[in-house]
Amino acid sequence: MKDNYIPVNSDWPSFTTPTRTMNPVIKFLAITLIAIYYFIITDLIRMYSLIFIVLIYYNFKSFPYQVSKPKYRFLIIFSLLIFLVQAFANNQGKLVFYLIPRIIEVGPFIPIHENGLFLGLLLVGRFWGVITISWVFIDSTNPFDFAQSLTQLKVPYRLAYSLSLALRFTPVLNNEIMTIRNAQQTRGLNTNPNSLKGTFNLLKFTLFPIISSTLSRIKDITLSMEGRAFGLYVDRTPLKEIPFRISDMMLYLMLMMVLWLLLII
Amino acid sequence: MDSNQIIIQLNDVNFQYSDSQPKVISNMCLKIQKAEFIVITGKSGSGKSTLALILSGFIPHLVGGKFEGEVSYQGIETQTLTLGEISQLAGLVHQDPENQIVTSNVLEELAFGPENLNLSKDEITKRIKFCLSATNLHEFISRSTDELSGGEKQRVALASLLAMGGSVLILDEPTSYLDLVNRTQVLKTLQSLNLLQEMTIIVIDHQPEIYKDLLTRLIVLDEGRISGDYIKDEIDFFPYQVPLKSLESIRDLSAIKPMTNVIKTKNYNVFIKKNRILSNISLNLYSGLIYGIIGRNGSGKTTFANSLLNLLITKGDVSILGENSTKIPTYKLAKDCGLIFQNPNHQIFEQTVEKELLFAPLNLNLDSQITAAKVNQLLCDSSLQQYTNYPPFGLSFGEKRRLTVISVDVYTPSILILDEPFIGQDRYNFEFILKILEKRKKNGLISIIISHRKELFNLVDKFIVFDEGRLIAEGSPEDLVPLLKNKLLYPISHEVLW
Asked: What is the predicted ipTM?
């Protein structure tokens, strides 16, 4: 049927959203810019508005991989921990309230100060900001397109591919962890992360199988890549070119302008 | 043997992974001619996979160890070549194609090798065209590699090595994960490469009989040496084929009466994320019987097994030993329902073999019932007693498989589910698992096996047949022959219908 078939650039899987079609290197620069912005600004309303917009965009239907509830749960627990540490430990600024009401004169009352609350929210915001834009990058980027566009910028291809392999196998490793956790439960081990005992068991008994599984995966991938002449020559011929489009550059400059305006206004 | 036709030659090759370990390959001499179709078989640990690594150049170039002797390709010694250069002469397809695929879509995967060879774009395109037509993968060209079935992945792995332009293909158990349809496709591809392209095919497999119509030579390994080397006309038996006698004895055991209903499902649906994988499954499974779950790759067999232990989202009724199991957490269900995963590496958690054996009983508070004598007996029966204080991750694949089986058998759950327990197992391990099944049947316990192996036909009391997420049949193997034959769901052939 397709005997005269010749693969061309248009045959590569096409993506629909702007983040998917954007050049991966420019996209990487854009998310780095946003990450820097999160670390510069101290306006919580602007910071959380931006996080909200990114989250809405991320969960938009066109993304195939949506974040699972357990992952959100973990992030929320971790954020709470960051917030509480700051709120309890920072005693600077105006006193806002006591966690334990001063009905009688015997403490401790755990005073909560303005700076503690502010810093807690700021750190949580930075944490969520970086996490959410990383999701957008990971889910909208073909790791090998990223490697290829780096190579086009004269980054040595061995280095570019090791970066892209890390991106490629992150979801694979996640699945592996889930499989091991399931396997532990089938052997009577309580690994429910909602209980203290479950969390302890999860940490204690996951390490060995994960290391074993990761090492075995690395060995297999190395055999597969070296067995197909990876690294034989200084250069390699990319069949697919990743275009650096003017529109991508324009989008990046626009983003730069918007963030700059948000900073100065 | 025509010396001009010799493509690979091994002269007095020895290999050991470290000085403290015994030789895996001993004084091996072997000549392989162009366009031969060779099947290499032998029991676990006989050196088959190591030989594949030597033939493909990974030993001594990438895998460490003590290598002696000489391997040459068309007269050129491989030690004078780089691995990248050898990859243009011979390619190795690993047992699990999942672990071989590097990129995230089929076209990228096929282009990966030729791109590394720094060929011109026209040449890369030409090679991709060739391997697409050789493996009949045209329709998959734009697909994500994560979306492919096991058989499709195997063909992609094969095609990606063909694109390297070598004339020798080495395959380590290429059909072990595949159903009949996918297996047939892979075998057809190998046959056409061998006959039409004159490629040399070297297959390593515990089931050499699968290749009986294709092979030109059978090599049997034993403790790192060639113990048998036969050309096609000399082969009147296939070593390491599981003798049907031992299967017969299990089949002939009549189930202990009265049989009780152990697993019951009604309008049972199973979901992975938001996708319905199994629909409206209604089943009654009884004690004292051995069930075989069969069906094509992706038909929902493993999903069904995992769902019984509450590892997946389900809708509908399911009861285990009379209780609604959806309300019971997995770690409690494990007491009555043991599940052995496909990959033993996923089910090993402890630091010594003995601790591993006691892992589940300790979690389930059953350790008081497990005597030292029982532990010793199980270690002895499984030939693992010398590894009692050895880290289980250091065991071979077959040994790990035996360990995971006895780690569940040690507390004798009422239900035992084994997911593809025979992959990569030699006759010894196969028979070891059969003995466990026989013992359970004698004790009136239920066992459920998920497998593509044809020996199941003579082993199980009942088949449960899944197709595209639906239960399409349930009954004795003999009753289901017409269906299985028509739908090509199972390797039925005259040799198993005795």
From this structure: 0.81
